[in-house]
Amino acid sequence: MAMYNNIIVLYLLFCVISFEGGLGVRINKEDQELFMRSTSVSQAPAPSAIVPPAPAPGSTGGTCKTRVEIFGYPCEEHTVTTEDGYILSIQRIPNGRSGSNSGAAKTPVLLQHGLMMDGTTWLMNSADESLGYILADNGYDVWIANSRGTIYSLGHTSLSAADPEYWNWSWDELTAYDLPATFEYVYNQTGQQQLHYVGHSLGTLIAMTSFCQGNLVNMLKSAALLGPVAYMDQVDSPLARGAADSFIADAIYWLGLDQFDPNGEAVHNLLAKLCKEPHVNCFDLLTSFTGPNCCLNSSAVEVFLDHEPQSTATKNMVHLSQMIRRGTVTKYDYDDATENMEHYGQSSPPAYNISGMASDIPLLFGYGGQDQLADVKDVEHLLQAIQPHDQDKLTIHYLAKYSHADLVMAVNAKQDLYDPILDFFHLHS
């Protein structure tokens, strides 16, 4: 369920971690070039502007220096501490390149990335092609979230990321702690009563599971949900489904590997070897996970490989695997009635009632016909589940040629998707 080749890396790690036990090292530039030569992404439309190469995460300056200010935008680095002690990085682009109306109060927009990604999700293409910049140039106050466990959100008030307890969470905690903390921080910093929200993939799931409980809706103008994830039993990515059905994430968790680091040495070595094989087409391998992405280009993919994929909790991967196998949207299942009782006061995990979202929340659902992670059948199930929804508050934006990564990385996404999002925000401003 998330983005582009992070799923490849995920599956390769599934295949080898039990045997090689790799520790985290990022894929180096030589192997990135090898990967790029082995793909067909260069056949996508050329970008309208050259995308500057991005330094690897962890270099000085953070996202503002490496991805925003280089395009001529102002940018601020912020942090927020969640109720359970995680210290999250947030970037703010307060106005566009022109600087016009820089002192005027603007409507905030919060951008939330998906699984094993970070805020760079919204900044991978040129300034004219990436949603984060486009929103700023259109007069919005842009806030970019980075979930716990990502490179700039590894802080905690009492734990180190080297502590197993640091990784004792799933997306339940993103719903319960990260998203509310980020909403409230934007509210307090801007003085604006409400914000627009854009989520991709896992960023849609944590939003819907908040909204269906009545949380955060008083601070919400509207929500654009891209590649929406809730019901997942129709996921038809053969390798993602195979990993879930084989309980591989569960096995990794049982082995005591609490941090799921997709940049481990074992994966690094295997990916490099795999792409050297004459019979292996890495682009087709991507397609087997995400569905065929129509509109990626090599510059954006280079930025992607410089920044992603990010670490997550193995427990989070187990939770998502449970959803794929069962087709339900529930809290994490400890697979033990006694332990579930300790956490939930009942023997089975409570369900999130997606149908409980208020019918008057302005929602835009953007999804692709080629997406094998937010599968069309699963999205249709979701859309049926939220009915009846006020029709003047519901926008469905279907892109037949798009797959999962296209929704945030396609070079033509501005006209295909981002302009409609701007129209949607204007309608519900």
TrEMBL record:
Protein's UniProt keywords contain Signal: yes
Keywords associated with the record: Hydrolase, Lipid degradation, Lipid metabolism, Signal
Membrane-spanning segments: none
Domain Partial AB-hydrolase lipase: 68-125
Pfam families in UniProt: Abhydro_lipase
Signal peptide start-end: 1-24
Gene Ontology molecular function, alphabetical: hydrolase activity, acting on ester bonds
Catalytic residue list: 201 (nucleophile), 371 (charge relay system), 404 (charge relay system)
InterPro entries: AB_hydrolase_fold (IPR029058), AB_hydrolase_lipase (IPR006693), Lipase_euk (IPR025483)
Biological process, per Gene Ontology: lipid catabolic process
Top-level division of the source organism's lineage: Eukaryota
PANTHER family noted in UniProt: LYSOSOMAL ACID LIPASE-RELATED (PTHR11005)
Protein family: Belongs to the AB hydrolase superfamily. Lipase family.
Protein name, per record: Lipase
Chain's gene name: LOC120282585
